[in-house]
Amino acid sequence: AFFTYTVVGWRGTGNVSYETALTAIIIEGAIFLVLALTGIRFALAKLIPEPIRHATAPAIGCFLAHLGFQTAEGLGVVVSDIATAVTLGACPEEKRTSIVAYDDACAADGICIISDAYTCDVLGGKMTSATT
């Protein structure tokens, strides 16, 4: 998710190409394989405090549930919000305001990439159904 949304950017709007990001992931995988085969990974894992080790799996589960609740990936129950970052969604289509990737091309030429994500707060939309 970090490489997808931050490094490469939404639909390639980031500073790093997807080829470079995939190369970094392959190198990371090779390093992890070496650490696992030599037993260093186990030693490093034992250094992490037990409460953090127990809390990591539920935190990842909550993150994946959050992705599933978003519009582009799933139900559309939560959407972007300017003030709080996340708010209830599923407002009617006429009340949706699309999120735009604002970059240099958008500012200079008006060529803006419109996201699948939307916010309901600008036009006064209220959640009407979790499936619409």
Strand order of the largest sheet: 1-2
Helix percentage = 40-55%
Structural class: alpha+beta
Structure summary, number of beta strands: 4
Strand content: 15-25%
User: Which regions have little confidence, pLDDT < 50, spanning 5+ residues?
Assistant: none
General shape: flat
Task: Quickly count the helices.
Answer: 5
Mean pLDDT: 77
Q: What is the terminal separation in angstroms?
A: 26 Å
Order of helices and strands: HHHHEEEHE
Our Rg estimate from Cα atoms comes to 20 Å
- Describe the biggest sheet? 2 strands, antiparallel
Q: Briefly, what is this?
A:
The chain is an alpha+beta fold and 132 residues long. It contains five helices and four strands; from the N terminus they run ααααβββαβ.
SSE topology:
Elements: H1 2-7, H2 18-38, H3 40-47, H4 50-69, E1 78-81, E2 85-88, E3 97-101, H5 104-109, E4 113-119
Antiparallel strand pairs: 1-2, 3-4
Explain the overall architecture.
Helices cover 46% and strands 15% of the residues. A two-stranded antiparallel sheet has the order 1-2. The chain is flat, with a radius of gyration of 20 Å. It starts with a helix and ends in a 13-residue tail after the last strand. 10% of the residues are buried. The mean pLDDT is 77.
